[in-house]
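Forum: Protein Structure Q&A
Topic: Joint prediction for protein chains with partners

I've read a bunch of threads here and the consensus seems to be that you should model interacting components together rather than docking separate models afterwards. I'd like to see that in practice. Below is the full input, 676 residues plus whatever partners are listed. Could one of the regulars post the assembled result?
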Amino acid sequence: MRVAILAHENFPGRAKTAIGVLRYGEQEVVAVLDRDRPGERVRDHVPDLQDAPIVGSIDDIDEDLDALLIGVAPIGGGFDESWRDDVRAAIERGCDVISGLHYFLSEDEEFAALADDHGVELWDVRKPHDDLTVSKGVAADVDAEIILTVGTDCSVGKMTVSRELYEVAREQGVDAAFIPTGQTGIMIEGWGNPIDRVISDFTAGAVEEMILEKGNDHDYLFVEGQGSILHPAYSGVTCGILHGAMADRLVLCHVEGKEAIRSYEDTVLPPMDEYAALYESLAAPVHESEVVAGALNTAHLESDDTARQAVDRFETELGVPATDPIRFDAETILEETL
Amino acid sequence: MRVAILAHENFPGRAKTAIGVLRYGEQEVVAVLDRDRPGERVRDHVPDLQDAPIVGSIDDIDEDLDALLIGVAPIGGGFDESWRDDVRAAIERGCDVISGLHYFLSEDEEFAALADDHGVELWDVRKPHDDLTVSKGVAADVDAEIILTVGTDCSVGKMTVSRELYEVAREQGVDAAFIPTGQTGIMIEGWGNPIDRVISDFTAGAVEEMILEKGNDHDYLFVEGQGSILHPAYSGVTCGILHGAMADRLVLCHVEGKEAIRSYEDTVLPPMDEYAALYESLAAPVHESEVVAGALNTAHLESDDTARQAVDRFETELGVPATDPIRFDAETILEETL
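Posted by a regular:
Agreed with the consensus. Here's the joint model:
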């Protein structure tokens, strides 16, 4: 599938869906749309990804295209009207549109009618299916061991770390599956429940459903975490995933230098060992879970030496083995989780 | 408003909506429907409520009726098909139907058509409004002090305790408001966001919205809590309320003798002081909250002496003043919260 990824004014720093698909997706990315960076390339910004040109609008792409993928996830998940021209043009040239916004493109009158006219699909990844229900508290009963990534904030790399561990495990011949819980993971896998979009009563149940579906066919499940139990807006999602997944082992994800929750600067992060202990205390009465490793995102540090020092500090503060699994190697963490 | 309350096979033990409306609602309750107890009366089971006869079906009620209210909340919030005859008969005699189920009566084809024919309203209390969004983390900025009830499980009395504290505070001349978060509270107040039914990303935001609406017009807000942070299915809702409400003080609610989460018996409750400390640790990075009192539900104990002993044990284990605010007096708790 040949796709263009819309990431206007947000690539690369605030376009985690775009980055996730560029890193792990099966799709061939023909171009990234960012009107702030026309003429640049993906590789100018992030070295270890699938490369692609950055263009100002979809009309600047001459190649054939199967789909336009919305690669940004603004707080609140709204549709930015400045994207309308690109989405309209995509539909008119026969592209499907794949979106993880809270705002459903399939319920937008103009897009729905236009998609009908041109016979294309509007796939709202974040639209949950209708049969979700409450958790029965039985995820731990599956045969697989369950490994969940948890974080100190949103956008610290939980999806990336889960995905990386899953891929490295598979390369080593381990029978593992990936359980997607958010838009990027779902776009990469092609299935999954968008946990942040389900009815709040069904948060844990929607995770459990996926674990029951895959858990007896594999030895390990790598579950993509969301948010943080201390996030002022999203903690409910995180807590539901923590209890619904009944994970055996947790990997704590963090960004080097982060001291407070982004956009909620009054919420200062506790020391890493306390943060980990809070996750464990909250999990334990439902299912004993242990933070066995840490994953530190050091992408914004230039030198590997500085990054190594940051990892060492993080590891000391956290009290369990840690690394940057993207910059260095995922094996250090993987060993602790298997 | 003259109402009948449907509570088939569940009155009184598993009909907390019915009990809440009987205790605090402005409505005149003409009868309770429970096909297991025709001929009995409310007062046979719960002494300190508005009394009403219990009948087997709505056809046994001769008096005029304005509305039928669904007074049970089964796990999952589904509609029990054995209730259909009563709901149909209610609509046909011109009653509105008020429901807090996850299953929306207004989207049931038969009921919607019938309600249209008879010009009655189907009010689905649990249907959230469309403008909800994520929390900004600013509930603590309102003028009012915020008091939130938290619990060791579902159905331990959080709504009742919040409501009782609110009513006693008002009797004492305190300028207080009640913030409803669940179906019963909403039915009693006539407004409110059904937190367990909103999109999980908006859990905290839906609480914050209500607090911002009322918080500068009153000195105290009594916020109805939901679930428990250790409930395997509903913890996400609880965690979202805890962080969205940014409460100054918490009241821990418990049922005497409870040792595990109902229907999830593997989840054993920690000692009360640890349970309270876990709520405080989880709240603190977002907003410092302190468990200042405990509320113990002793309704199932016959003797007041036994109940007093239970309260004493609970108070000792919890480490802060406690009582049964319904059986004894709410003032003990109220003093700690103001």
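Chain A has a mean pLDDT of 95.
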